[in-house]
Amino acid sequence: MSRPPLVVTASPHLAGPDSTPRIMWNVVGSLVPVVAIATYYFGPSALLVVTAATLGAVIPEHFFGKRGSLGDGSAAITGILLGLTLPAGIPLWMAFLGGAFSIAFGKIVFGGLGQNPFNPALLGRAFLQAAFPVALTTWPAREGASWWSLAGDNFALPLMRAAPDAATGATPLGLLKFEGTKTDVGELYLGSIPGSTGETAAIVILLCGAYLAWRRYLNWRVPVGIFATVAVFSGLLYVTDVSDADPLFMLGSGGLVIGAVYMATDMVTSPVTHKGAWIFAIGIGFLVVVIRVWGGLAEGVQYAILLMNALVPFINRATQPKVFGTRREGTAA
Amino acid sequence: MRNALRFRHGVHPPDSKTLTESLRTKRMPFPDEVVLPLSQHAGNPAKLLVQVGDHIERGDMIAAADGFISAPIHASASGVVEEIGLWPHPNGGYQDAVRIRVDPYSAQVPRARLLPEWEGLSPKELVDVVRDAGVVGLGGAAFPTYVKLMPREDTDIEVLVVNGCECEPYLTTDHRTMADFPERVHLGIRIMMKCLGVPRALIGIEKNKPDAIEAIRKTCPDDLDVEVLPLTVKYPQGAEKMLIKALLDREVPSGGLPLDVGVVVQNVASIATIAEAFETGLPLIERIVTVTGEGVAKPANLIVPVGTKLIDLINACGGLTKKAREVVLGGPMMGTAVSNLDAPVLKGTTGVVVLTARQIRAQRQYPCIRCGHCLDACPVFLNPQKLGNLAMAGRHQEMQDEHHLRDCMLCGCCSYVCPSNIPLSQLFGASRAALKRTAAPA
Predict the structure, then answer these.
(1) For residues B419 and B361, is the Cβ–Cβ distance under 8 A?
(2) Distance between CA B322 and CA B160 in Å, rounded?
(3) How far is residue A171's CA from residue A137's CA, in Å, rounded to a whole number?
(4) Which end of chain A offers a freer environment for a tag, N or C, measured as fewer CB atoms within 10 Å?
């Protein structure tokens, strides 16, 4: 009788249900509703911008990344997330360039997936903000326009001046910071405000994040810690009249929700320990409020997260788990 | 303390025990030949006592213990010594072994022997009987049992912990031992308590074995302080440190032994074997083995002569199915895959699990994404993520000095949860082996 061919592998011979591509594609899937709602509010431009940024991320990953690394889905996440942090009216070539920068300089130069110290999407956004400050802060106003109309001059050619005829508005944070007017909180959470494609509709993002947390693809401690810190700290400033923004406004405005749920929780660039996750989250929340209240920028989420990303190795080192059967450092039997 | 019988972290692999958990143990027919490696236990290999051509009866000693940490080996069937030499060993290599051609006409009745009357013996004499019977831990590690029965004078043992967890998926060896032979387990506990002079025994059984819990509870003696405690089903509940934590809420110190917290742990199957040595006067020459998995035609719990070749054992269970891809000795979490089915069942072989292609871990590896799931799984609270990076960089010494590599039990929880399929526990085992090589140059 011929025996079937046997293989010999190392233990454990069973594997848990999760795999890295599965985690990544689940995150991509969870972003679909966010993109859909952005398209609902901002018209076809939102979808175009997200698509351009995603292509910008995926193409260099395919050509310069490790062989087959496109399949793990992480480049797609970077592109979609970048697209969601851009204004809907931005020229598509800029979105594409941002995506390419994210992957090439945010990830591939460090050695690909798992090696990058900074969140690639945020790095790409920071690059765009430095290179094209006007385009990155031109928020389309949607009142009165038909859904099908573009939110800005999406098809501007590279390095050409964008058509100036698009109607623009200001984000709630900009309005508060530079003009002293406050947006209705209800509008903040339901999304009908000027802003980046994905920074509106906080409720949808929170629901998608809750799904990921339930699947354990996202560390809930990070968003919870950020929201709690922002609420408490901005609450303190509000009661003491240092700042005009109440906690509900702070939480719902700008990119805080998408940043806390999708950017700060990037596994690669956040701490591996639970204690570390809390420290990381509190640091981000604190920095967000500091930048928003005292900084020169209206929005601080992007730099708050990037700054804390830089501290992750130190946080990890400082929060090593206490090994079973050891009482304190050095007293191990 | 009593309300939470659990340890923290760990994993929940599907237990897959339904294949065999309700099958009563049956005796397997004697195979045509048995192969007895001289190294079946932790410590020195046994010293050979027989020559080619010798006729031996079932139960005769064929190799004697060599040193303190060692165990004698006995013939598991009557027959003629046909060959002494290298033979495939379940650990993957070849080892010295005695091959016995089993006498097909023998009734396999052991030589008449005096039954040791355990009640009349002193603890010292009891320990001698256990040692001479070649009893080793049947949970897999095969540590000589008698050594555990004679702890140093200065240690104060309060509790005997009986390990009936069997947290490895698929295996039902301990389960059936408890369900089918509960009196034998209790006799073994009685003898161990006498040897150790402990007043109290706790039996920890995972909740997924209600019939075993009931059988052991029903037969609990009234005159001894023996208690059965059902435990949460979680891997690796059966690891000594985890079991002590769950039952007594004590932490065995890092680098220490259960003795350091006043506990001796023994696996139920070994305890039953101790009792058997006094009940039948026979040494450890057969054991219960679970043959299971989707790759075996007729899964079973069998009483198997030690030294039975795997191929004979599997054929006694209907043979391999077409889907069979990997044969694992022991449970799928910590067991070793064998390449050669001529390798024999050893004293420490708890089960033979045949896995299918669909079940085996994919070999494709992704980069670490620092998800931290391994930290949440590690029952001894190591940082496998960091250790894995160091191992791949070859920084073994640093792993040991700064990251408690020594505390790793190689339980495999980290590898099990790793979404990137990084073989963490395999890397740690390799690092330890590398350190051993540099510590003691051959």
Answers:
(1) no
(2) 45
(3) 9
(4) N
Where do the structural domains in chain A lie, given as residue ranges? Answer: 20-143+163-317
Q: Please report residues of A whose CB lies closer than 8 A to that of B334.
A: 11-12
Of A10, A20, A270, the CB nearest to B419: A20
Min Cα–Cα distance to chain B from A229, Å = 23
Dihedral of alpha carbons A183, A187, A191, A193, sign: negative
Q: CA of A271 to nearest chain B CA: how many angstroms apart?
A: 8
Contacts of B369 in chain A (CB under 8 A): 20, 23, 74, 113-114, 267-268
Q: What confidence tens digit (pLDDT) does each residue in A134-192 have?
A: 888 887 766 666 777 777 777 777 766 655 555 667 777 877 777 777 777 777 776 66
Cα–Cα distance for residue pair B175/B214, rounded to 1 Å: 11
Fold category of A20-143+163-317 in CATH: Ammonium transporter fold (1.10.3430)
Mind listing the domains of chain B with CATH numbers? 2-20+117-280 (3.40.50.11540), 373-439 (no CATH)
Q: What is the ipTM of this complex?
A: 0.88
Residues of chain B with Cβ-Cβ distance to A10 below 8 Å are: 337, 423, 425-426, 429
B2 pLDDT band, cuts 50/70/90, is very low
- Take residue B247 and report the two structure tokens written for it: 């039952």
Contacts of B6 (CB under 8 A, 6+ apart): B231, B232, B234, B246
Which amino acid, one-letter code, is at B169?
A: P
Q: Decide: helix, strand or coil at residue B161.
A: strand
* Residue among A14, A219, A324 minimizing CB distance to B380: A324
Output the six-digit token pair for A8.
Answer: 């010999």
On average, the pLDDT of chain A sits at: 87
Identify whether the C-beta of residue B338 lies closer than 8 Å to the C-beta of residue B92. yes
Q: Is the pLDDT of residue A285 over 70?
A: yes
**CB spacing of B426 vs A273 below 8 angstroms:** no
Nearest to A333 among B260, B335, B338 (CB): B260
For B260, nearest residue in chain A (alpha carbons): A333
Give per-residue pLDDT as tens, B123-168: 899 999 999 999 999 987 889 999 988 887 778 899 999 999 999 9
